[in-house]
Hints:
Keywords: Signal. The chain is an all-beta fold.
Amino acid sequence: MKRIILAAFGFAALSVGAASADPIGEWRVGDGTATVRIKKCGAALCGFVASTRGAPGKDVRNPDPSKRTRSVIGLEVLINLRPGGDKTWTGTTYNAEDGLLYNATVTEDGERALQIKGCGANGGVCGSETWTRVK
Length: 135
């Protein structure tokens, strides 16, 4: 898989507004294989894999060998997201597909969609997808 899925084991926001208009909540990743829960983490937002469509995989590509047997459930995939503009947050995303961190931009696209973009350091390879809010 060449795309960066930015969130789950298939791959892989800071506003305090109305619940329906901010990214806090649960989101289904673009290919539908996982759900990510976005919540407040101190002064920022973070996102964790909340569920997977099938049996959860392991973090087998993690650069730290001691973490390769951990489940992707509970894995932090959106890290330290801070406001970066109107309805946009910037931070880091962890891609369990390759075990690497990417610069992340999360942009609200209405109340039910998030555009997630991840890019390698120094303008490296980028990938993006749309996540859908789970009711």
